[in-house]
Each structure stands twice: as structure tokens, then as C-alpha cells.
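Anyone opening a protein record will find just a pair of labelled lines. A complete record is shown below as an example:
=====
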Amino acid sequence: MLESLHISNYALIDEVNIDFGSGLNIITGETGAGKSIMLGALSLILGGRADSRAVTDPSRKSVIEATFRIGNYPALKRYCDDNDIEWDDTRCILRREINASTGRSRAFVNDSPVPLAKLSGVAMLLIDIHSQHQNQLLARPEFQLQIIDSLADNASLLREHSKRYHAFREAVRRMKAAQAALTKARDDEEYMRFQLEQLDELDLSEGEQEELERERDVLSNLSTLKHHLSEAISALDNEEGGALDSLRTASDALDECESLFETTDNFAERLENASIELSDILDTLQRVDSSLHADPGRLEAVEQRLGAIYSLQHKHHVASVEELITLRESLAAKLAALDNSDDTLRRLATEARRLQALAKETAAEITARRKVAAEGFARELTATASPLGMKNLHVDIRVEPADLSSTGADKVDFLFAFNKNQQPISVASGASGGEISRLMLSIKTIIASRIELPSIIFDEIDTGVSGDVAHRMGDMMRRISSSIQVIAITHLPAVAAKGAHHYKVYKQDTDTATHTHIRLLGSEERVAEIALMLSGNANDETALANARSLMQK
């Protein structure tokens, strides 16, 4: 329930702190005392538009904070967990701050900053504000559907249906995307086959380009390479003596004086190893030299091959043979898919039909439950609302087929007849504001015990009624308050007398300003307030007696 409300620096409110109780809380006050200001401040918690002009003192921020006492509330905990909002098992604190200098506002849940949408999402699970201005809700199809679903206890079934429906829509999306891709692929098929043929004809292999570029460099510089190779071979071995002959001479000379050296020096062995290594190098250089021969045809072939590779790379905007190979594989896969496209589309269409059938299955179950709930709700609403001055009321709740959607396959229409021999019509077409208010109160009386909503505020929905109807509306609010906390703003003494807690909103003047205040009334103060509402005079003995009589009843 709403445990406390703090408002500061907002319109005529300098600062108020209100502690609410369980059951039926009554708020009264003269017209213009500031009741609507309080509701406007509370609407900011629900995500209403913040107006910096409502900040009284621009040098400091305006703060509206509501503290709700909560217990086991799975829906709220699930919402907080899903949206990464800090969770407290006992209380939920919602706060909105408005900075007049910047024109911006900030939102908090349990002292952690959150986007305004998340503050609103939490608040809507905690409190419902209903006023005459919101009576148009009754004419909205989605609100009517929500009522029937709450009475049919369709929440879990709707979640399952929503999953199935969105899976079906995703399957349809995939099928349409495949159809679009197939249409485009067929338009491009001839060109793709031409591209693939070019790539297949080239028969590329990984690393080929680098090998060809190296071979081209060798063939282009063949004479220079052979000249340098010849010099290197001659330096190692020639008729006049080369490095290998010099090593053999050195080795023979050291053999003659081997006894003069330390055994660890191993000069002979080391020279032998060097000789073997140089011999191996010489053999390799000679093989390379013999393999290099002037072949103008080979150089031309390499240049042509590289030219073909470079041409395709430029054409396809790639930089390597590997990328061309990847492109070739991609084109081959697309054309293969195109060849198998009919099978693919049939498979996607079959899957979409399967998922549609599952969604229709849950939708049919939802429809059946809605029809049962609609029949019972029509009877119960007639019985509940008739004593409120609508004895000729006839209610017809229709559940009719509609296109499959995430909420099922139905449209719900609430039709009412308020007079004899009148055909039921939609509530927007022929109901007065007072009739709609009484219908809304009756509806919320019926669904109060079936919803997980801690608090509801009725803002003068009893306007335009009096006498016995006023008493009956007050009794309804009191019955609702046995299930959830009710806060009722009223001008009717008959309603005010039925409250468990009574608050008065009033204005006080200072030397410089007028401020709105609110306070909890004691028992005698309540009698005087109700007497004032009855006669305009809180000291009138007759009015005081009537006030006591109302409260005793």
C-alpha cells in the first residue's frame, strides 16, 4: 500500500508529508484548496510530464517521493529483476526530482536512478489513479480486453500465447526474407553464374599469388641473379683456388702442428665442419644456378597469370587470392541455394504454418475462457451497478473474432443499455459522465480482489450523485478497501463518513505567500469536517448530529 507521500516545492505546496493507512482513506477540502495539486504531483510518479513552471522556488529542486509497503508481490519483483532495478522485500520508494533551472527531471526507484519509463512501469504496478477525466478508459478496447482477461485469469496463458505468436511472426519474417532474397538472387543469377565461371576458370589456389610474384621477380632479374651466383660459386671453388681450397690448405697446415695445441681447441675438427657446410652451400648454389635458365615464354605466362588475378581482384574490390577463393565459395553457395530454393521455401512455409497452428491453439483456449468470463462479468456488473441508480441497466459483453495477434484472436466490446426498450450500445455513444463513473466504480469493485494492485485512488468519481446512491458508492469503496488500499477524494459527506482515515486539505496564508497543507483528522475533527460538508457550518448542531449519525452508520 501507499505508506507515505512527500511533496516539496511544488505549486502551492511548500512541503507536506502524509502517512496513509490501510483500508479506506478519505481526502476532503474546499474547492481550490489544493487536492488537484497533490494528485498532479503524484501523477509525476506515474511518469507524467514534468513542468518546471510548477516549481515554486526555482533556486531549489522540487521533490515528490512515494513510499509503498510491499510484501510478496511476484509481478513487481519480476519487473524489477527484468529491468535491473534494485529490489527490496519490504518497501519500494519512488522519487521524481524537477530542476527548474534546467527544466529537466530525474527519476529514482529505491534511491537508484532509472529512466522515466522504468519509474512509470514500477508505479503502474503499485497504484491506479482514477478520475472522471479517465472515464474514457472504459470505451477503449484494450482496457475492456484487460478486464475480461483479469477475470478469466488468462495471465499465464497470454504469456505462452505471446511467445507462440512472436515465434510465428518471426517464422513469417524469415520466410518473407528468404522470398525477397530469392527474388533478388534470381534477378542476379545470370551475372553470378558469369562471375563464378570466371573464378572457376582461373582455378586459384591459396598462396599462388605470392609464389607467382616471387617467380616473376626472379625471371625479370635472371641475368643479374646468374651473374651474382657465378661470383659466389667461383669464390667458393675455382681452378685458381677458392674458399674450399683455402680451408683444406689450412687444415693440412694445422695437422702438422696439432701436438702444439690444447686438445680442447679442436681446430682440425672445426675446419672440417666449416668445409662440410661450405660444400653444402656450394652444391645448393650450383643447383639453383643450373635451374635458372632464360625462358621468355615462362615469364610471359607468369605475367599473364598475375594479370588475370589482379584484374579479378580489382573487379571484386579485394586484395588477395584468398578473398577471391572466399568469393567463389560464396557464389557457389548462393547458386546452390538458388537451385534448392523451392525446397527451402517449402520448409520455411511449413514451419510458419506449424507455429501459426500452435498460436491459434492457445488463442482458441483464450477465446473460450474469455467467453465464459464475459458472461459471468455481464451478470455481476449488472447486479453491482444496478443499485447505484441504474435499475434498468442491461450489460452485453461481446467477444467476437479478430485477426490473430499477440493478445489472441478476439475483440471485446462492452455494450450498455441504461433504459428500458433501449438496444445496448457502446459506452462512448450514449452514457453520461455520471453513469460511466458508476460503471467504473462497479468494475473496479468486481476486479479489486482479482488483481495484484496495492493501491487505488478515486478522484471525485462520485461527482453528480447524492442521497442513497452516494451511500451505496461509499459502501462500494469501503468493500474494495478490504482487498486493497483505497484513497478517495470526495465532496460527499456520505462517502467521507465511511473512511477509516480522514485527511483535510486546506490553504494558509503567510505574509508573502499562500501554501497548501494536509493533515490527518481526529474523531471530533472528522465530525466537524463532515458537518461543514453538510451545511457549510462546522458548528451547526443539527449538522454535527447528522455527521455523527453518518459516521455511526
User: Anything to note?
Assistant: The longest helix spans residues 155-202. The longest strand covers residues 394-405. The chain has 18 helices and 15 strands.
